[in-house]
Design goal:
Layout (H helix, E strand, L loop, with lengths): L3 E9 L5 E9 L3 E7 L7 E3 L1 H4 L4 H6 L3 E4 L6 E4 L4 E4 L5 H5 L6 E8 L4 E10 L12 E7 L7 E3 L13 E6 L5 E8 L2 E8 L10 E10 L6 E11 L7 E2 L3 E7 L7 E4 L2 E2 L10 E4 L5 H6 E3 L5 E4 L10 E9 L7 E11 L7 E5 L4 E3 L7 E8 L9 E5 L5 E7 L2 E6 L10 E10 L6 E11 L7 E2 L3 E7 L7 E4 L2 E2 L9 E5 L3 E2 L2 E2 L4 E3 L5 E4 L10 E10 L6 E11 L7 E5 L6 E5 L7 E8 L9 E8 L5 E3 L5 E4 L10 E10 L6 E11 L31 H18 L6 H12 L5 E4 L4 E4 L9 E4 L9 E6 L7 E3 L6 E4 L2 E4 L1 E3 L2 E4 L8 E4 L1
Parallel strand pairs: 3-9, 10-16, 18-25, 27-33, 35-44, 46-52
Antiparallel strand pairs: 1-2, 2-3, 4-7, 5-8, 6-7, 8-9, 11-14, 12-15, 13-14, 15-16, 17-20, 19-23, 21-24, 22-23, 24-25, 26-28, 28-31, 29-32, 30-31, 32-33, 34-37, 36-42, 38-43, 39-40, 41-42, 43-44, 45-47, 47-50, 48-51, 49-50, 51-52, 53-54, 53-58, 55-56, 56-62, 57-61, 58-59, 60-61
Length: 825
């Protein structure tokens, strides 16, 4: 049998109470301590090292420690002295609630060798909590009819301490009407209020008592709550109105929710027995509850629906007032509402025989609608005046009292106003006057009174030649302000002839939308433009139409290759070139033309093949074939040149010709042939050279300046150079200078005083470039020069003068050796 020992200690707690701390230990390895709750940190629990027979050295060397399954480490051991102490504050109520026993179980462990000890610490309850009620104020209602001995349960108090320190009894403030009886219900004590005497609400309607709860601790603790007892009244009085009949007068146009009257009834009772509830009784007509409403709490009667004097001039309302008892008492009164008439009715318009659509050619006086108007008001409020919107082709005529006719009074035009909105306004003569408006919509029906109108006075269409048959050319558009069939247009081409061919052979038009399409391809070289007319016709009755001119312009394509017109050759395309010819010798000139126009007719010349490369060259712009160097004895006597002429179109077209050149020795009998080339006006275009004429004012000022200079330069007895210049101005500057070639026409305007220093050369075919020249005087020379373009003749003032090629320039002597030079700019 295990030996048991006991250790008891006396300890004074924080509340000055003396607790007996006892520790039991068993030799078998179990030890138990008892401590009160609420000890502070470090409070002594027991000498666990000594109780377990462990020395101070063993506590450290064997790593003695306390193990607990609790979440919080409430206890710990000091290995320096072997004392078990409080590590955290212990609240028994939180740890164990109101259980009879509260045990904190732990294990003590030592190593080398391992030994386990069970340690139990009993937590003793301390009366640290006072009783408390859930509510500090307890309310209780008891009717004054309650008999003596009636019991009423009161709320019990709560104490979280243990059973011995929990609620022991209750006490009540002494009084003559109530007493307290404490009942045991299990482990709880419940207070009950007992009625001792008859209650009288009229004598005392409320009682206020103090309920006290006492616990069993030492010292004793207590808690209190105030008990308020309300004596309930019995319903022994009915509500009473001030008067049995109330009268109120209102206008019929008062707004909704207007307060008509506030009723007041009183009740001598109290509480619910004195709460008055107002309502309409079942004696009222149904219409009364539709128009009026009453607030059940305040007795306010207000308007729920608008009043109408014409419907009823007065209403009788029966009102009931009852109290709030389960078996209520009630009383009745009558409210008479008298309605005062006002001008609250607007005139009422009625439309009869309304014509919503009329033709725009309807004559003046056509009936649109019959209008009648009424007003529920009487006397002056019933008189009505009507009118319509101004500035409309309509008129409102009175037939008889409150009846009108709406008619037209002018011509109508649907295109300017397809619809008319006529506002009829009627106003009574009341104070204030009331009015009403009605809108009549009159649609104007269309007649075919407008011919189609094209969007443009004329149309121009552009089409490229060689177009595909059926290709789109352009379109015309016409508009007709009429509607429906009167605006349905059809397009047609008026028959005409183009180059003796009907226009219908060239194109056709879509009759529905005016789109124009080609029937056959166009050839710019044969037809550059033509004009035809398109007619637009509507489908009205009768039909109306209009015509428009369409100009079709054919755009050129590069579909014609160049045509070589001529080259200066001998028979069999053979040319003779002297072997002694200097470099730059003009062998021949290739002339070509192109039936196209613009860039498609701009030609360039190229040497595609030669017998001796590098011996000859050709001007890309003029077609001049020239020698590059002197001929050698080793050069072949016969030279073949293949010349290609290309246009500037896209894609480019070309033509070629083969030239045969024969190199001949010097022969005095051979004379180069200079002839004026034939100008074929059917295949080439003439060049025209014009001197640009300045503005009149500028010309006049320039002429004055020239005259002043001439007078200053040519005084009487002047030098020879001045005479030369003046003679030239008199002899040459008033003449016409002209140089003609098959593709060139050079002309100098005689009036040099207007623009004395500009000369312009234009050409076509092989000479499509335009050149401008500046004329200058050279006193040291007796020659007039300009850049050559062909070995031709020139004539001045009807006198022919042969130009001589000198240093690659053409020149002539005339006008008594006076000098003028032409220089290309």
């Amino acid at each position: 049998m295990a030996q048991t020992g006991i250790l008891c200690l006396l300890r004074k707690s924080a509340t000055s109470s003396i607790f007996l701390l006892c520790a039991w230990y068993l030799v078998s390895g179990q030890i138990r301590y008892s401590i009160p709750e609420e000890l502070e940190h470090g409070a002594f629990v027991g000498k666990i090292g000594k109780d377990l027979g462990l020395s101070i050295e063993e506590l450290s060397s064997r790593k003695f420690r306390i193990l607990s399954s609790a979440i919080k480490e409430y206890l710990d051991v000091n290995r320096m002295n072997g004392i078990l102490f409080v590590n955290a504050r212990i609240d028994r109520e939180q740890l164990c609630g109101q259980s009879d026993n509260c045990i904190l179980r732990m294990e003590a462990v030592a190593e080398n060798p391992v030994e386990q000890y069970r340690v139990e610490v009993e937590i003793l309850d301390v009366n640290d909590n006072s009783p408390s009620f859930p509510n500090n104020e307890i309310s209780l209602e008891i009717t004054e009819t309650a008999t003596p001995g009636a019991r009423f349960s009161l709320e019990r108090a709560q104490d979280p301490d243990g059973v011995n320190n929990s609620i022991r009894t209750y006490q009540l403030t002494p009084n003559e009407h109530f007493s307290l009886d404490v009942q045991n219900r299990g482990k709880w004590k419940v207070p009950e209020l007992v009625v001792n005497n008859i209650l009288d609400r009229e004598t005392q309607s409320r009682h206020r008592l103090l309920l006290t709860a006492l616990d069993g601790g030492s010292p004793e603790r207590s808690g209190t709550a105030h008990v308020t007892i309300t004596i309930l009244d019995t319903n022994d009085n009915a509500p009473v109105f001030d008067k049995s009949l109330y009268t109120v007068s209102v206008k019929e146009n008062v707004p909704l929710d207007t307060l008509l009257i506030k009723l007041n009834a009183t009740d001598l009772d109290q509480g619910k027995n004195a709460e008055i509830i107002y309502s309409f009784s079942g004696y009222n007509e149904p219409r009364v509850t539709e128009i009026f409403a009453i607030n059940p709490k305040t007795g306010e009667v207000y308007l729920k629906e608008r009043l109408d004097f014409e419907e009823g001039s007065a209403y009788e309302i029966d009102v009931e007032a009852k109290d709030g008892n389960a078996q209520p008492l009630s009383t009745h009164c009558s409210v008479r509402v008298e309605i005062t008439d006002v001008n609250d009715n607007v005139p009422d318009l009625t439309l009869n025989s309304v014509s919503t659509a009329i033709n725009e050619d309807a004559p003046s006086g056509t009936l649109i609608a019959l209008i009648s108007v009424t007003d529920k008001d009487s006397n002056q409020n019933g008189y009505i005046d009507c009118s319509i919107s101004p500035n409309l082709p309509f008129d409102l005529k009175s037939s008889f009292s409150n009846s009108y006719r709406l008619v037209t009074n002018a011509a109508l035009d649907r295109e300017s106003a397809p619809q008319h909105k006529i506002t009829v306004s009627c106003k009574d003569r009341g104070i204030p006057p009331l009015s009403t408006n009605r809108t009549i919509v009159v649609n104007i029906s269309d007649i075919n009174d407008n011919a189609p109108r094209f969007t443009q006075p004329s149309y121009t269409a552009y089409v490229t030649e060689n177009n595909e048959p059926g290709s789109y050319i352009g379109s015309v558009t016409a508009l007709d302000p009429d509607v429906d069939r009167n605006s349905q247009l059809s397009y047609s081409v008026l028959e005409t002839r183009i180059q003796s061919v009907p226009v219908s052979s060239y194109l056709f038009i879509n009759s529905n939308n005016g789109s124009i399409y080609s029937i056959q391809p166009f050839d710019y070289e044969k037809l550059k433009s033509f004009q035809f007319h398109v007619r637009a016709q509507d489908a009205g009755e009768p039909t109306l139409s209009s015509d428009v001119a369409v100009q079709v312009i054919i755009l050129d394509q590069n579909d014609n290759p160049p045509t070589i017109i001529s080259s200066k050759t001998k028979s069999n395309n053979s040319l003779h070139v002297p072997r002694s010819a200097d470099p730059g010798y003009l062998v021949t000139k290739i002339a070509a033309s192109d039936a196209d126009s613009g860039k498609n007719a701009q030609l360039s010349y190229h040497l595609k093949q030669t017998t001796v490369p590098g011996l000859f060259t050709i001007s890309h712009s003029s077609g001049d074939v020239r020698s590059v160097r002197r001929f050698k004895d080793s050069d072949a006597t016969t030279q073949e040149l293949i010349v290609q002429v290309k246009d500037n179109g896209y894609p480019s077209l070309s033509a070629t010709t083969t030239l045969t050149l024969t190199v001949i020795e010097e022969d005095t009998s051979y004379q180069p042939e200079f002839r004026k080339p034939h100008l074929d006006v059917r295949e080439t275009q003439q060049f025209s050279i014009y001197i640009i004429i300045s503005l009149g004012a500028t010309s006049f000022i320039l002429l004055v300046v020239i005259i002043v200079l001439v007078v200053a330069i040519c005084p009487m007895g002047g030098s020879a150079s001045s005479d030369s210049v003046c003679s030239f101005a008199a002899c040459c500057c008033t003449k016409e200078l002209e140089c003609q070639h098959s593709n060139v026409n050079l002309q100098v305007t005689p009036d040099f005083q207007i623009l004395p220093s500009v000369l312009e050369v234009r050409g076509n075919g092989s000479l499509t470039d335009t050149h401008r020249y500046k004329i200058r005087s050279a006193p040291e020379s007796a020659e007039m020069f300009f850049t050559p373009f062909s070995p031709q003749m020139a004539r001045i003032a009807g006198k022919e003068t042969r130009y001589v090629l000198q240093d690659n320039r053409w020149g002539r002597k005339s006008c008594s050796d006076q000098v003028s030079n032409v220089k290309k700019t």
